[in-house]
Prior knowledge:
Distance between the termini: 31 Å
Order of helices and strands: EHHEHEEEEHHEEHEEEEEH
Strand order of the largest sheet: 1-2-4-5-6-3-9-12-11-10-8
Radius of gyration: 23 Å
Strand content: 25-35%
Largest sheet: 11 strands, antiparallel
Low-confidence stretches: 1-49
Structural class: alpha+beta
Number of strands: 13
Number of helices: 7
Shape: globular
Amino acid sequence: MRRAVLRLCALSKGVLTPRRGLTQGSQDPRKQRILNMREACPPIHVNHGMCVRDKLREIVGASTNWRDHVKAMEERKLLHSFLAPSQKALSPRRMKDSYIEVLLPLGSEPELRENYLTVQNTVRFGRILEDLDSLGVLICYMHTKINSTKTSPLSIVTALVDKIDMCKKSLSPEQDIKFSGHVSWVGKTSMEVKMQMFQFYGDEFCPVLEATFVMVARDSENKGPAFVNPLIPESPEEEELLKEGELNKGKRIAFSTASLLKMAPSAEEKTTIHEMFLSTLDPKTISFQSRILPPNAVWMENSKLKSLEICHPQERNVFNRIFGGFLMRRAYELAWATACSFSGSRAFVVAVDDIMFEKPVEIGSLLFLSSQVCFTQNNYIQVRVHSEVASLQDKEHTTTNVFHFTFMSEKEVPLVFPRTYGESMLYLDGQRHFNAMSLPVTLKKDCF
Length: 448
């Protein structure tokens, strides 16, 4: 049975909706003016029941049949002539040109719930990650739409999940969910996408999530970079979004430059690690080798979980690589299990940040996921998941992704202590990601 995915609901051609604007006034689809399929304005024309991933296949000319994928990719070579020689050759676009609203009708179509349901009767966050990834790509295709050809010459892929912030502990599987989003900043070949998620309660949609993704455009064969349309603001708010996008780019560069894989820890971080080391020395011996744990603490090496996935064609994207949303879902589910096992209680995701897609995962690969608690504070748990692949023929492992998740436990959790220098760097990296989160985090428990 084909997995249930998002349904396209509407494309607004009016004034760009503010980031929190969807919470203003009545948001009942039965009361508000949300265009249906027959009323959808350009650049989207869809038939009733078409889902986001079906729309993506249509845009890139991908086949739904695995046996036809080679032919479909060969046909994409003919699209090279539609690629722009420079960004100046492309017409500017507005933020509202890429704005989309999408409905996930869990409440009105109960048959969809099964694929989104957890054993605790909440919505699976891993499925939401998959849907956000698909929606982010579609938004970028709306921004770069070429009217002279039905099939896009661009191959748009996810480069980075900059951040995802939650404002709700769990979601109801019995209420409709709505997503909205648009391109908020562009470079020459990259685009930043801001997305929001809401869930219906009473007579309005309540905000539950905000996400920022970075997508990159490549040529029709996904072999090299391709230019994207410039973005022009139409209001002071949109100008602020553009400035924020530029600042985000600078922050990403600065964070990468200061990576512990490139630079030594700061003086303050060195002091932190040394004090932690001293606190684990056995006072009964005069030795650096004799280590004991302080009260309510766990060695970092004892907080690991691992998994193995075989990458089947079922999980492919429209370019016949493994779908990035699938990788995020599997990494999140392993991280969640790690957080729950470590804390001994149920954990709730608070934030996701800095997921870099280093290398595409080929169909048929063996996907190795390794999850580890790398930092804790009060009832917060920072979990890092390392992803690597190997082929059946080649035993060499290659890193594809590193995922960072912040969880909140129902109770205070033990401190995690590194034993080695490598683990100490993991601890500091986890601390940096935790400190980058917007604190204090207050998750609403019963919004609906």
